[in-house]
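Customer escalation, tier 2.

The customer says the design service returned an amino acid string that "doesn't look like it belongs to this structure." They asked us to rerun it and document both sides in this ticket. The original structure tokens are below, unchanged.
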């Protein structure tokens, strides 16, 4: 028997035609993303200006570069939100091939610096591993949707899924980037589960991943050292690795309300990469547990909205895409924050919308654009059925004039004098 999830059946509902043009905007999702991005840019400037000055760059250089990528990402997200997600079926093999090609190029021509492995192209500024995360979501969603009931078999379901994930895992792990490689496998496995995989397959997959993880820890010295440091830190914080101890110092200094925006001291005294992997430590130190909780709440709201879109998606494909994108973004955020407060072994996952990095930000915003399109498609279908949306901005064109409609409700009778 397959596992029952909130992913819908594969029968699509087709939006109806209307006598006017509708531009449906998922207002909750938009507000959540804008809030995360605005908060993230503010904290990035605070965390990066000293890092930039020490390296003889302009104090605002990292911030301005991130702002530029944010604009690019928002424009692409807007374009993607207007493209029917079913249309990617014709492009999916090209997207996969292009991503694999870039990952191979990294292994040959990859560039990094003294402190960073060779994970990027164009002087390390473009990281194909970020694109691989979205690509695996797109490919797995289309593939699982097309296989339907066959995914519950081993010959047409389990083994092909494992082969797909293995190719991406090995190409990314070879860079080496264990955290990104593991993220790809976890997201792919979640999609396989949501698509209705048999419990025997899920159990076998978990056991297999456990064995593979154990083997990699044996041969991958960095991963083994991180795990050993994490276990030692659970018993005695002073035995954690240097990165975690400095991050915890920032957390402790932050207290309830923080030391104030821009007033962090740990970023001046050796906290590694404060503008990328460690930016959540700066958030906690400068805004306290209050600001740290706001970040967690915003990602929690993103999870809620993404799951709502997945549950109401017009078809199984939309449900899988929305689920994969949502869990990918929220999972990366959870891992980053858990590492900073010592709840998880050290990993290199970025904090979405906060950490510096154009590849991560642009790809994340493109994923949001796909999520927005799924929501828009569902809104169009519901509008055809006569439902009312309280979270939709409906810009209508009627006789050449644009207007925002008033609340659709029965007017109360006017009082007579």
């Amino acid at each position: 028997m397959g596992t029952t999830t909130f992913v819908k059946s594969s029968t699509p509902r087709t939006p109806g035609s209307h006598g006017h043009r509708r531009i449906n905007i998922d207002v909750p999702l938009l507000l959540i993303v804008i809030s995360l991005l605005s908060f993230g840019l503010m904290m990035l400037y605070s965390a990066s200006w000293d890092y930039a000055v020490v390296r003889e760059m302009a104090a605002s250089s990292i911030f301005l570069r991130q702002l530029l990528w944010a604009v690019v990402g928002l424009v692409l997200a807007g374009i993607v939100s207007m493209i029917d997600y079913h249309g990617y079926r014709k492009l999916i093999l090209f997207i996969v091939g292009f991503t694999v090609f870039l990952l191979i190029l990294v292994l040959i021509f990859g560039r990094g610096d003294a402190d960073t492995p060779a994970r990027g192209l164009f002087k390390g500024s473009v990281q194909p591993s970020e694109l691989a995360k979205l690509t695996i979501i797109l490919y797995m969603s289309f593939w699982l949707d097309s296989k339907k009931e066959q995914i519950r078999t081993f010959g047409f379901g389990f083994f092909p899924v494992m082969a797909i994930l293995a190719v991406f895992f090995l190409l990314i792990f070879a860079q080496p980037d264990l955290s990104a490689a593991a993220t790809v496998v976890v997201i792919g496995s979640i999609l396989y589960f949501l698509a209705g995989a048999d419990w025997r397959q899920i159990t076998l997959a978990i056991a297999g991943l456990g064995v593979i993880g154990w083997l990699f820890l044996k041969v991958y010295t960095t991963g083994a050292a991180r795990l050993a440091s994490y276990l030692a830190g659970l018993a005695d914080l002073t035995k954690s690795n240097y990165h975690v101890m400095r991050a915890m110092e920032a957390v402790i200094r932050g207290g309830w309300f923080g030391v104030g925006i821009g007033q962090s001291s740990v970023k001046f005294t050796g906290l590694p990469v404060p503008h990328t992997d460690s930016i959540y430590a700066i958030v906690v130190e400068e805004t306290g547990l209050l600001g740290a909780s706001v970040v967690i709440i915003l990602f929690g709201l993103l999870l809620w909205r993404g799951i709502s879109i997945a549950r109401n998606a017009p078809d199984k494909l939309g449900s899988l895409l929305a689920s994969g994108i949502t869990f990918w973004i929220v999972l990366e955020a959870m891992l980053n924050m858990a590492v900073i407060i010592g709840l998880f072994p050290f990993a290199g996952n970025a904090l979405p919308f906060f950490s510096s990095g154009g590849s991560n930000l642009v790809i994340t915003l493109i994923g949001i654009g796909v999520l927005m399109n799924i929501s828009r498609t569902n809104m169009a279908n519901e509008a055809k059925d006569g439902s009312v949306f309280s979270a939709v901005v409906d810009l209508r064109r009627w006789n050449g004039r644009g207007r925002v409609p008033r609340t659709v409700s029965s007017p109360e009778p006017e009082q007579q004098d």
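Tier 2 assessment: The sequence is consistent with the input. The mean pLDDT is 81. The two ends are 68 Å apart (CA to CA). Sent an explanation to the customer and offered a walkthrough call.
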